[in-house]
TrEMBL record:
PANTHER family in alphabetical order: ABC TRANSPORTER SUBSTRATE-BINDING PROTEIN (PTHR43208:SF1)
Keyword Lipoprotein attributed: yes
Entries under Pfam families matching the protein: Bmp
GO cellular component terms listed in the entry, alphabetical order: plasma membrane
Organism listed in the record: Aminobacter aganoensis
Domain of life assignment: Bacteria
Record-given protein name: Basic membrane lipoprotein Med (Substrate-binding protein (PBP1-ABC) superfamily)
Amino acid sequence: MNFQYSFSRRRFLALSAAASSSLIMPGWVGKAGAAPLAAIKEEDAIIAFGLTGPVSDEGWNTKQNEGAKAIQAAFPKAKTLVVESIPFSADASRTFRQFVQEGAQMVFSTSNYGDFFASVVERSPEVAFLEADGRRVADNLGWYYAAHWHPTYVLGVAAGLLSKSGKLGFIASFPVPMAISSSNAFMMGARSVNPSATLQVISINSWFDPQGANQAASALIDNGCDFLFGVMNEASYLQVAEQRGVRAAMWSSDMRRYGKNAYVSSIIPDWTAFYVDQVRKRLEGTWSGGGQTLLPLGGGIDRDAWGETVPAEVAAKADAVREKIIGGWSPFTGEIKDTTGAVRVKAGETLDEVALYNWDWSVEGVSGLST
């Protein structure tokens, strides 16, 4: 299935219509009707992946590597290059340049490396580039991500029902839109069933720092939080939750074996179909830049199976919300206030997918993130 077009038509068209003013930075607008890049024989194809961490993290990078393996399985004559743990520094530019020098015709940047990536894209017009969590497009560049705020809201509902203290904790990497939208959706889901719930956020300035995540988890629990969530690429805070007798929800993979009593669920992206589809287009000569893709709930992003200690009635209530969202209902409808109490979304208004993707302010009840 081509996920670029399976996304809810109404939402995807709204996203595309708003993109020029909300998402695309000056100088990066692809030409209308730009010609696709030339076709490639499968045996000549080189597809490259730049990862933010080790493929063994059982989180984000494991899932990205699964996408690379799916490409290799679908196109066995092609060559796949995977480089792990690329730092957010000039070393990233060197790595992406090396991909081009080695003949890669398609490069996946599995995180937003900003100008470290952009400088290589601009100098390589014959190479197709795709950037996860990107904001820029060009004739040879598109971005992709997943509408993770929808399953996160569902997990927030479960958290609100399961928490005894009403104090929830969130371990964030950086105060970026991904973490802000995730923490906001989680808080809003929790408050839909527990209006007095609060969410304390600690940012550890890394996507992969087990020691930092451990320390943040312990601090949150010491402060009374009895449910942890976050966007880390490994299972450290789940292990702390298991040891301390609280619950936790995770990102990217089923990690319940690290804390079967604590584990509630996980946000699970599946990039494989999208990646295979993009490579197929590149080989066929039908791929062109400018694409902007958000994988939808139930079609590339979803919750994991519920943990064994989650009561059936909690799972049922949360899943009823999930079905409503899949059916077209949005939980991100006003009135929505920020942390100062100011109304940011008026009653009856709904945040569209562009606003959710670029969310840069925290909702009422969240503390610890810059807004």
